[in-house]
Amino acid sequence: MRYVIYARKSTEEDDRQVLSIEAQLTELKEFAAKEKLEIVASLDEAKTAKEPGRIVFGEMVSFLEKGKADGIICWHPDRLARNSVDGGKIIHLVDRGVIKSMKFPCFWFEPTPQGLFMLQIAFGQSKYFVDNLRENVKRGLRQKIRNGIWPSKAPMGYLNNPKTRGIDVDQDKAPKLREFFEQYATGQHTLFSLRQWSIQNNLLSRSEAQIQLSQISKTLRNVFYIGLMKYSGEIHEGKQEPIISKKLFDRVQEILLEKGKPHKYKKHHFTFLGLMKCSCGAAITAEYKRKKSGKEYVYYRCTRKKGPCEELFLRDNILFTQIKEYLQKISLSDVELEKVFFDLEAEYTKDTSTHTANIQNLKNELAKIETTLEKLLDVFLAGVLSTGEYTERKQKILTRKLELKEKIKDIEEKGMNWLGLAKDFVLSLNKANKLLETNNQTEMTPFLKNIGSHHLLQNRQLVFSWQPPYNLAAESGRPFDISSIVHAGGFEPSTLSV
Ligand SMILES: [Zn+2]
């Protein structure tokens, strides 16, 4: 059995709810692939079927009469004919055996007297229009998804554009939302404290209300923010501009997973708790001790969870002195900051290194991937692949595509923005200076955890491990040779690889 596909949509008002011709064709091809139907021709026209005399319809009829095809695949009988003349033609062709089969994804038909009777009604009745509205709307959503457009209300950080019917970045909320992800990525937040943060920073939901706790984790898990869409369990590529990078998103997923595991809650909040471990590998705990004089101190000591331990406790004021000494090593004053900024800017102006070639290579691969995706769809439509295989392969290719896009963005951003990164680094050195000046203890622990890791308590000493490039700053003499730190620190574009 050979089939001809026929799709139609008129520009008339009452046809607005009908699928576009493009959507009809896609649906019909997928339908044919699923049903393993052979297609010999695909015809479409943008004319109303209320009046007889459509050109393409006439072509289809003569195509069938000549015996080049013996069946029709069409979205619904109302696409085929909506006037008695054309309807009668079709019925007559069925009667004569010229049309041996007709397939409609949303209308059941078989060439029996009852079937023909139903068909005749379908041809004449606009009632079917209404009946199929619901199904059509659903298919319309799927077509939107296929085109990479979210068919529903945009999530927080995006806006529905009523004019283009697309999704725009909410310029107001997107930066805050990015910060929201970054905050969580520090690992310092619970969902609860992240909600507090959102409220303090006035990050409001789509309906301009405070974010609910349940929305926090939903937002953190939403792939929409990296340019994908999850619709009925399947991941699709979206046309919306990503708000956050895949790297950041992946980091957040890791933390969500970690925090999802059960853990004990802390009874007290001690300022420097969580900053360091004992040299034996066990965690450090803190407790209050009252002296005979009535004065109260905080002691940090080994929990001895990993067996006996020789390490002694450390009193908080001594620890605080040691912390300040470390901060002093990287502290940059406001005056120095100004000079460093000036030097960096001068260097940036000189720097002419471009990454055009790298970017071009990546873009070439990207273009190849597009072709692969198209081919994959063709293969799928031809019925060679099962839906499962198709989805799996498509997902793999989409992941690679995302990676490439990210790399291009990386080079473009770092190539152009190393100055920004270097400035951020320098600013953090200045922040050490500010923390010292204000004696802000509560902000010190998160700051110290950002600029180093695996700090230890050993011989009543805090043994600090700098995170590069902070080690360079700590080891550098005064005044800072910021230029060489920046070069060694991985900020400049030449350290970027493809
Ligand atoms: Zn210990």
Percent of residues in β-strands: 5-15%
In angstroms, what is the radius of gyration? 33 Å
Q: What separation lies between the terminal Cα atoms?
A: 52 Å
Shape: elongated
Counting structural domains, the number is: 4
Q: Share of helix among residues?
A: 40-55%
Which strand order spans the largest sheet, edge to edge or round the barrel?
2-1-3-4
The pLDDT mean sits at: 83
| SSE-based structural type | alpha/beta
Counting DSSP H or I runs of 4 or more residues, the number of helices is 18
Largest sheet properties: 4 strands, parallel
User: In terms of per-residue confidence, which ranges show pLDDT below 50 for 5 or more consecutive residues?
Assistant: 263-267, 493-498
Ligands, deduplicated: zinc ion
Task: Write up what this structure looks like.
The chain has a 4-stranded parallel β-sheet with strand order 2-1-3-4, with helices on both faces. It has a 3-stranded mixed β-sheet with strand order 9-13-14. It is an alpha/beta fold and 498 residues long. It is built from 18 helices and 14 strands. It has 4 domains: 2-145, Resolvase, N-terminal catalytic domain (Rossmann fold), CATH 3.40.50; 150-260, Alpha-Beta Complex (Hect, E3 ligase catalytic domain fold); 276-324, no CATH class; 329-495, no CATH class. Bound molecules: zinc ion.
Notable traits:
single chain; 498 residues; Rossmann fold; Hect, E3 ligase catalytic domain fold; 4 domains; 3-stranded mixed sheet; 18 helices; elongated; binds zinc ion; DNA strand exchange activity
